[in-house]
Design a protein that fits this description.
With 628 residues, this protein is mainly alpha-helical. The protein folds into 5 domains: 69 residues; 81 residues; 185 residues, Monooxygenase (Up-down Bundle); 132 residues, no CATH class; 91 residues, Exocyst complex component Exo70 (Monooxygenase), CATH 1.20.1280.170. 66% of the residues lie in helices and 0% in strands. The chain has 23 helices and no strands. The longest helix has 33 residues. It is rod-shaped, with a radius of gyration of 46 Å. The termini are far apart. It comes from Carex littledalei. Belongs to the EXO70 family. InterPro entries: Cullin_repeat-like_dom_sf (IPR016159), Exo70 (IPR004140), Exo70_C (IPR046364). Component of the exocyst complex. This is Exocyst subunit Exo70 family protein.
Amino acid sequence: MAENGEDKLIATVQHIIKTLGSTDSMTEDILKVFSNYDGRLSLDKLHGKRDAAGGGGGGGGGGSSEEQQHVPITSFERTLRTLDRQVTQVINQERLIWSESEAAEGFLEAVDDLIATIKDLEAAPHGNNQPLLDRADDLLQRCMFRLEREFKSLIERPDDAAPAAPSRPTGFDSDESDEYEYDEDIEDARIPIARPVTDYDVVIDALPPGSVSDLHKIARRMVAAGFGRECAETYVVARKGFLEESVARLGLRPRTAEEVKSAPWDELELDIARWIPAFNMVFKILIPSERRLCDRLFDGLLPYGDMAFAGASRPPALQLLSFADAVAAASRTPERLFRVVDMYESARDLLPELETIFSDEYSCALRNEVATVCSAVGSSIKGIFMELENLIRRDPVRVSVPVHGGGLHPITRYVMNYLRAACGSRQTLEEVMEGGEFGPMSVGPVDPDRPTSSLAIHIAWIMDVLQKNLDAKSEVYREPALSCVFLMNNGKYILQKVKDSELGVLLGEEWSKQMNSKVRRWTREYHRVWAKIISVLQINDGGVRPEKLRVFNNYLEENCKTQAEWLIADEQMRLDLRMSIMDSVVPAYRTFLSRLKAISDCRDVYVKFTPEDVEAWIGELFQGTEKR
């Protein structure tokens, strides 16, 4: 009896459906209403009775030839129609789906059902399923397009996908307005420039946890539907604005290689000073934070998280790397060494950290590009040292006016201060120099007592080139004694700069001994001019003649007046040289005067200077422009 009653109820419902269901869509709606109203009126039972009776939507009355030829609706088609209505209603709405959590969850469930239906259709015997499969694929594609839109909006506007002020990530700026500086060189002066950061052990959470969870749900559906690559590409597009603004806040602006090549050094130096902290910020904070976000958002969805990370990280990384590459390829004048060394050290120190961050197949190319740029900057450092050598070689030897008074030559001061400062980065320079051989240095003889690192050999070579240049410059002076003074001054300055510095370590003790020996030799050669004067006072077989005193007076007066304008730059060396002259000249003069006075016919007219006067004359030597 119960079954008869149920059959009558189903028959009545079938009659209502047949009478009111003028279209397939209306029929499905009515079926769904009855199935929700009474558990006995399930969709399967209603469809089964209706199909068995040859019923169908489309207009009252039964038994027509058209109805007899109607193909019974399949379970797949019913499911697909139901999903089509559910999904289309959501897709067509203007507001974002994720502005309402319930609507979002319902849409995701419908997408799950659609993906499952497609898999069932693909697994079923092929028969007449292809039209249904085409419809399902088309519907799935529409769902994916909508999910892409939602995915992009959740990334760009995570606050319920509503417009919001630009985020201020930790490590880039602060909520306080006075934390910003504005750079007029940036095209959009409204972009705030972040203050320098010294602690890079921070992570930027650019999206709230709830948004990350929603994005993961969307990504999971897109991957399941075969749209993983599109999802990763959408992520890259959505993150572009944030990443570009983050780099802009670091005070950098894109520069072409030609702009870098033609830029004045003071301007380029400022850009490099900005580049170094920006490079650390991007590779130590921004990119690792992007890696963390991708890992969370695409958790368990390999390789699409790696694809998204590589695509998002590449533009800001390449902007920085292309600048460094352009600097490495630009002019290699010696003045650029110190900034270029800073760039090299930044890239070199970062490489070990990138092993983990760029470990997958999609981003490992970025790590290789950092290594390539690091190598290019290292080659630039080598080139700068070679240019320093060329600069010394090109410094003119035959100049119209030599250095006044035989003083310190500007090229000596420049080279020695340059090398001394450069050796402050000795470890880095040795590392760079070991990476390749350097022209003549690699074939030149190496002193067994001299340090043999590539940097030590290179600096020794530069010192040899400098010394040869100074030797040639000394020949410009007409007076041999002044040439010696010039070499003494420059040699002493070189020794002072080498002493107690990394230069001394690199050049070695033997080199310093040889240089000291040269300075002593030049000093001895200088003393020859005084030996000529002293020779006049020598008492030989002719005895003491008063005429010799007159010659001595002329020599002494002429030499002292001339050499008072010569310069010995080092104070101690000046005092030592004066004392050595006095020790050789004054005693000889005293002896000569004493012997002269012993002669009865000697007249005082020949005695022009007392020994004290001679000491005073000599005591005023080598003051340069500081005359008596």
